[in-house]
Amino acid sequence: MADPRRPGKVARYKPPATETNPALEDPTPDYMNLLGMVFSMCGLMLKLKWCAWIAVYCSFISFANSRSSEDTKQMMSSFMLSISAVVMSYLQ
Amino acid sequence: MKNLYIFIAVLFIPWSFSLAKYDEFEDGDDIMEYDDNDFAEFEDVSEDTVTESPQRIITTEDDEEEATVELEGQDENQEDFDDADTQEGDTESEPYDDEEFEGYEEKPDASHSKNKDPITIVNVVSVTFPQVPAHLQNSWESYYMEILMVTGLLAYIMNYIIGKNKNNRLAHAWFNTHRELLESNFALVGDDGTNKEATSTGKLNQENEHIYNLWCSGRVCCEGMLIQLKFLKRQDLLNVLARMMRPASDQVQIKVTMNDEDMDTYVFAVGTRKALVRLQKEMQDLSEFCSDKPKSGAKYGLPDSLAILSEMGEVTEGMMDAKMIHFLTHYADKIDSVQFSDQFSGPKLMQEEGQLTKLPETKKTLLFTFNVPGSGNTSPKDMESLLPLMSMVIYSIDKAKKFRLNREGKQKADKNRARVEENFLKLTHVQRQEAAQSRREEKKRAEKERIMNEEDPEKQRRLEEAALRREQKKLEKKQMKMKQIKVKAM
């Protein structure tokens, strides 16, 4: 069998454009991020401890499902917000 | 007289005992006023602040009375006692020791005699424990929600670490098994697109905690091959719990992009019936070119679980050669779908009515989706069983290059493609017309503006005349066309 390899015909990897195919993307991390922020705001404003705890859970789930190409800053900010919601609801 | 005093003393004992419970009682002072000598021993010494009352003035009464009535051992009153008193007190102090009343500083009662149990004093100063509200208690029970939450979080983190590691191990096991085959077929194995030069990284691209990519390129017939290891989300506890209800399996998706000249024009798919029905709805090319329902592959010796979707019978005949049937039969449980298409453009795009003006770009592609055996409970060893499937992929690439439609088939295929394009154009006809109209109006407006902006009046006049002439010519042309159509119709 002849060698099928052709080093001269190498094409570079192009990451698939996700803007044109929104159906291929997994929406879970974005939803969980939003949910986490909503719950932490509820926990802060209405002083509900369980809201703050759920916000922590949401930010954890969002982190676990996130893509590596995604910005870590947003993840960290939602995480910090939920932690602060828990702390504030216990201080009051 | 003596009897009278005894009687009064007996009367006073229970009275002052009852009064000893009340701090406010101030009759001790009053008693003092009556008669220092006679009733000194019956003074009520319940008041701490009343320091005059506890003055023990030992009268010249009988020693017996003193013995019964005198109350020894009141701590704060000790200082007030004269030496004579203490001496007296010492001799008569048998039932009541000073130490007995240590700490009971509030209401030592002068009238407590041998009849009264010293323990009763305790009742006076007993401390009752009021009900402390639950949120102020310092016991574990009041924090059960917090403990529950923290335990849940810890469980989630543990599952994340375990799941991530398992997926990592599975991915590397797969790669180690397939590395040799890939390296013998492709010049470039592993590329993340970031390096300046096209060198093999020899590593998987980790897109996610559950998705790994591998790009291979540099082979005859194909532009490149993208392998996606789509594992289950083992790192997400919610997903793990959901999978307990609905079992799912890891998938390996392989997408081979063929060179234009190396593949003929046809659309063909084989796979499980469920997968084909889903693909027919979702995929643009399958829905347009393979309008029939998936047919059973029993005619070619395929198991019942597999079905075939094809553009025309000739393609099926050509594809189902002995080796392919062998592959499909032996590994039917691992095959989800196999799709060969020259019009592949991905899933149908959900677009609004007025936006679709152009057909989506198509590429000649071979798509394979395999299920990893184990249905979720995979071990790294299971990856070895996928190696024959990769051989099938390589074989398919070569087969796709070799397979050519005959003249009839080619004509049919061309007709199909023209039909699809026409349908598309019809659908978008209205939009295209509107777009052309708006373009024409833009041109006219631009020209008018140019004429207005022209400063020289002569030039302006000339330009206006030219525009008029052009419009007249267009009108004439249209009229001619209408006449021609009428003649043809007749």
TrEMBL record, chain A:
Domain of life: Eukaryota
Keywords: Membrane, Transmembrane, Transmembrane helix
Pfam families referenced in this protein's UniProt entry, alphabetically: ASTER
GO terms under biological process: protein insertion into ER membrane
Major subcellular site: membrane
GO (cellular component) term, any one: endoplasmic reticulum membrane
Membrane-spanning intervals of the chain: 34-63
Keyword Transmembrane: yes
Residue segments, region Disordered: 1-24
Compartments reported by the entry: Membrane
GO MF annotations, alphabetized: protein folding chaperone
Family: Belongs to the Asterix family.
Protein name, entry field: PAT complex subunit Asterix
UniProtKB/TrEMBL annotation, chain B:
GO BP annotations, alphabetical order: endoplasmic reticulum calcium ion homeostasis
Keyword Transmembrane helix: yes
InterPro entries: CCDC47
Pfam families for the chain: CCDC47
Coiled-coil residues: none
Membrane topology type: Single-pass type I membrane protein
A cellular-component GO term for this protein: rough endoplasmic reticulum membrane
Positions with biased composition (Basic and acidic residues): 104-115, 437-479
Predominant localisation class: endoplasmic reticulum
Domain of life: Eukaryota
Compositional bias ranges of the Basic residues kind: 480-490
UniProt KW Transmembrane helix keyword: yes
Gene Ontology MF terms in the entry: calcium ion binding
Biased composition (Acidic residues): 60-103
Record keywords: Membrane, Signal, Transmembrane, Transmembrane helix
Region (Disordered): 45-115, 430-490
Places the protein is found: Rough endoplasmic reticulum membrane
Signal sequence extent: 1-20
Family as reported in the entry's similarity comment: Belongs to the CCDC47 family.
Protein name: PAT complex subunit CCDC47
Source organism of this protein record: Vidua macroura
